[in-house]
Write a structure and sequence with these properties.
Oligomer: single chain
Structural class: mainly alpha
Order of helices and strands: HH
Distance between the termini: 141 Å
Radius of gyration: 43 Å
Strand content: under 5%
Largest sheet: none
């Protein structure tokens, strides 16, 4: 009877030792995963902490480009008007030249 109790205790001890060993390994794995997540959080924080400044700089550049674009569009519009005027003068000149010199 005492022998069976000792054997059962030894078996239970071995099973519990195995469970404790598995839990210890799981704890190590979880600790590694937690450390990796903390490192990833620190890295993303470093990158994203600078993001608002980059966004503000980008907005300023876009605003400057829009102003420049407006100036260029005005110049293009003026150039088109000049070209249209030259075309009109050319057409009038050709008609006038045909009417009065090729009769």
């Amino acid at each position: 009877m005492v022998e069976s109790v000792i054997i059962i205790n030894i078996l239970l001890s071995l099973i519990l030792l195995h469970v404790a060993w598995r839990l210890w390994r799981i704890r190590l794995s979880l600790a590694k995963a937690a450390n990796a997540l903390v490192a990833a959080e620190h890295s993303t924080h470093k990158v994203l902490a600078q993001a608002p400044n980059f966004i503000y700089v980008g907005q300023r550049h876009i605003s400057n480009l829009r102003l420049r674009n407006q100036v260029l569009e005005l110049q293009i519009q003026q150039l088109r008007q000049v070209l249209n005027l030259l075309l009109l003068i050319s057409q009038i000149w050709q008609r006038y030249f045909r009417l009065y010199f090729w009769k």
